Amino acid sequence: MGAYTTGAAVYQLLLDMNVGPPSRLTPEEIEPIITGIEAQVNGVLKAQGYAAVPATGTNDVAMIREQVRKKAATQVYVTLNQPQRSPDWVRTWDIDFSEWMNMLRQGQLRLVDQAPDVGQEGQVVVIPFRKLPMLPTED
Questions:
Q1: Cα torsion angle, 103, 109, 110, 111, sign
Q2: Helices in 17-133 by DSSP H: which ranges?
Q3: Which of 40, 62, 77, 126 has the most Cβ atoms closer than 10 angstroms to its Cβ?
């Protein structure tokens, strides 16, 4: 079971999309796909300076769950069906995930329940310091 979603949730999403049950995969067999996607998300979160990885805040988990669940569903669909041209929902969810990851990576999107511990890409970090007057030296 993943930190953000489960194989059963992805399986149910595919059923809800009227794709039909994945014929050759069980919810348990979807788990490794979820693990790989969650590892990508957690890697970006870690690189952006978030201390709690995987994220544990209610809002953070809800946001990430939706993205991971949809991305896993697209990978399962493409893996099983290998279509010449993917349906619109597959292409849209794949693009949405890529754009979401890029926004997270560039600091344009942040987690809700925690702030990063370090400056993010493109962010100015001000470090206050005090300049002391120079003391005369004795010759």
A1: negative
A2: 27-47, 58-81, 88-105
A3: 77
Question: Which residue ranges make up each domain of the chain?
Answer: 7-105
Segment 74-121, tens digit of pLDDT: 999 998 888 888 889 999 999 999 999 999 999 888 988 888 875 555
Pick from 102, 114, 107, 106: nearest CA to 52: 114
Stated pTM of the model = 0.78
- Alpha-carbon distance of 99 to 90, in angstroms, equals 14
Q: Are 122 and 106 in contact (CB under 8 A)?
A: yes
Cα(71)–Cα(63) distance, rounded to whole angstroms? 13
